[in-house]
Design brief:
single chain, alpha/beta, Rossmann fold, 2 domains, six-stranded parallel sheet, 14 helices, binds adenosine monophosphate
Amino acid sequence: MKTINDFNFKDKKAIVRVDFNVPLDENFNVTDTNRIEGAKPTIDKILADGGSVILMSHLGRPKGKEEKYSLQHIVKTVSDVLGVPVQFASDCRGEIASNAAAKLLPRQVLLLENLRYYPEEEAGDVAFAKELASLGDIYVNDAFGTAHRAHASTTIIAQFFPENKCFGLLLAKEIESLNKVLNNSVKPVTAVLGGSKVSSKITVIENILDKVDHMIIGGGMTFTFVKALGGKIGDSICEDDKMELALEILKKAKEKGVQIHIPVDVVAADSFSNDANTQIVDVKEIPNGWQGLDAGPKSLENFRKVIMESKTILWNGPLGVFELEKFANGTIKLGEYIAEATANGAFSLVGGGDSVSAVKQFGLEDKMSYVSTGGGAMLEMLEGQTLPGIEAILS
Ligand code: AMP
């Protein structure tokens, strides 16, 4: 796996795909700089070598050249985070881009205008990719968030750099972390899968059954399993058409020697709100008019034991409706158990959308071994898919 550490960028121009799709407020101020900070080590290394950096990214989903999606808005923030002045090219192709790139001196940084101003980007247009490629000597992909898309700047461009293409440090770290969990793991390995639906996680579950020793299934998915096993789930969320699948998963797990852990008790509520009345009930005995919205204390105690014995932990999806304070306890506790196991030497990876938000919201981010930056991309990797953006660098 070639990374930027395999290259010396002295007097070279690196064209770097980053994910600067950052949130902006109504005055176009960047409200979260995480993604820019994530790319900083890669940019720093190229500059330190004496190279120059041409940054390209998308921002939002513009329909044509919509000013509100201009990357001009983020130039100052990028400069502040990087600690160097950042030049801006008001077009990512044509003379504006090529002149700006040609004038770029070693140790200078240029940011190109939003790639998605051109539909050719998402269409994976070869001519567009070739134009982008002409701006640099070495192609670096450091955008994990878009690595599952075969877009011009994330995948197609790589063919114009048969020797001179590599991963940035952020993308390399994502791949490495996932490998540590799925391919080179220290046993016992535990996957915690939460979230709302079996249907959205089924491919992940099937793929990782071969890789884990324990699987904790929580969140809304719980009830499809419990109902399939004959339990009474009251008004809890359930996918009736997935009950057979749930039983099949349990059977497969047994065959493969994977221990499945499902909540035994839940926090049941009489409405989906912070003002609801709640009671702790057996997961198989939820009264009508009540719905399970968080894991109960006995379940959490069981999960704690499993987590504390694990040497490798993957966490995807919350254990309850953590967006409502009343039902956040299970997700917070789980995060704390994983943090404790990590402090004791386990490797923990949190990936995919909502669990990442939860970990950030509850201040546990620094206590995990690695928190993934890409929602959809991480899910696809967990599903066992080969991401086109990664494949393009490897091939
Ligand atoms: P996903 O996007 O599939 O990872 O699901 C995340 C969502 O699942 C979050 O918005 C949670 O609020 C929701 N969720 C977790 N547990 C439950 C539950 N017991 N009932 C309904 N929704 C849930």
